[in-house]
Amino acid sequence: MSFIRKEFYHILRDKTTMMILLGIPIIQMILFGFALTTEVKNTQVAVLAPTNDEAAQRIINKLNASAYFDVTEQIHSTSEIQPIFRDAKAKLVVVFEDHFGDKLRHNGVAHVQLIADATDPNAATSFSFYATNIIAGYQQELMGEAKNPYQITPEVKMLYNPQMIGAFNFVPGVLGMILILICAMMTSIAIVREKEKGTMEILLVSPMKPIYTILSKITPYFVLSCINFATIMLLSVFVLKVPIAGSFMSLIVVSLLYIFVSLALGLLISTIATTQIAAMLMSGMGLMIPVMLLSGMIFPIENMPVALQVLSNVIPARWYIAAVKAVMIQGLGFSAILKEMGVLALMATVLIAISLRKFKVRLE
Amino acid sequence: MEKTIQHNPDQVIVAENLTKKFGKFTAVDHISFEVKKGEIFGFLGANGAGKTTAMRMLCGLSIPTGGKGIVAGYDIGTQTELVKKSIGYMSQKFSLYDDLKVWENIELFGGIYGMKDAEIREKTDSLMKLLNFENERDKLVGSLPLGFKQKLAFSVSIFHSPKVVFLDEPTGGVDPITRRQFWELIYDATSRGITVFVTTHYMDEAEYCDRVSIMVDGKIEALDTPRNLKKQFNANNMDEVFQQLARKAKRVDS
Fold first, then answer.
1. Of B97, B114, B140, which is closest to A199 when you measure between CB atoms?
2. What interface predicted TM-score (ipTM) does this complex get?
3. Considering the entire predicted model, what is its pTM?
4. Which one of A125, A159, A193 terminates a domain?
């Protein structure tokens, strides 16, 4: 239909906007994926080994030898741990228990504690994970030397930020944000632009049914959103190596539903806003910020004050991100996200109903 | 229908006590008039007199608070869809798509009005010839000078051969020569039986109309041919007529 074709022309001829729309997800993924994950090379490590025996020494050497760590401090009592962190002399303190080597040899079990400065939570997760691996590697070696089952139990303790943000958290988050951005913001701007330029008047005088006007405005953004969804998926699977653990089909279904909700939101904004700037502000301030702050993308919802937790329920991204996490990261099946799907479907119905009623067939 | 207006096929627009209120404010106050087929009907009035509101009601964009209106034989209150199919409309704001090419705009609006592709192609060719636009056919509308755009917008508004075309201050900001050419296009349209309903601020343009109505404060204060109006108000030109009437206005620019 010629009207849908026109909408594509609008987008295709506006090269800058199109580049932005297609580029945003890529840039965000790369930013979140690489720039914001701190490289944990040469993390400074302090060591507390009360009995400096061979076993502890070998672990320390192994840590020092790896590219990830530099053992810079040797401390002698637990009271020195706090100052070390305070003066930023180390990001990680490795505490061996008394008589580490003896216990390991005689009991087969020894404990080592990793205390991490989790001010930067992503970095802390990564380097404590590396340290744990190195210790486990040493354990493997021991197993090779003697047949006895030696067991070193590393105990990881995160300081300053006990709620760790999952490393895979951002892929669902970015998905949730980008789709809202493209669908809601762009749809509302596109419709409001017609109002602003006066072409909407011409369309309203024409015999074309308003529902067709709306559908054809939505179509190209729907296509764009699908392209963005595909880009994000490709990037996350192949570049960031975040696997899709669950069924890809349920991921697509829930995404389509979410796109639908976003488009409906965009429509609603377009019926309220009269200028493109207003539409942009409404979707920018009204959607992006709540999505970022209240969806659980950055801050865990469980830790919010009750009022904000209640508020977060009306944010579609919250449910979408939860569903994506369940499917993509946890690998849960379709039945696990029925609740999220239900909420999103309900939101879509309500939003569409309101915006269709508000979409003014007549200019008053 | 409480009261049916005697429908006369020669009367393309009939307004009877047409009224529009916004809250307590009466924008259009019981206006009545008829426009005959093929006529150029000038709809004059100062800013805020209620012209645009009246025109919107006739186009089906705004529901009348009271009174009746018949456009192209259809009731504007109940047969809006049929009214919309039979009219063309050109608004004050230039309203073609700047980022579409000339022919794409024509194709789009032809399509919206349900014209067949072959018909659109054929009529586009002859329109391009008429406007001397053959070289501009593939240009983006945004790159054309304003005069070109206005002529194109008018041609697009009558592209589907409506019975009536409503022009809302079509020549705003256009130079006198282009305005002249624009009026030639209007005359050409009437010669094909299209009725023209036009609002304007330019009193010289009022002289080109077959009949003129002048609205003051939501009411029609005068309605006749320009010649009769000048005689009635003892004026040399339409501008003087307008000045005498507009002076009575109590509403300021809204």
1. B97
2. 0.77
3. 0.70
4. A159
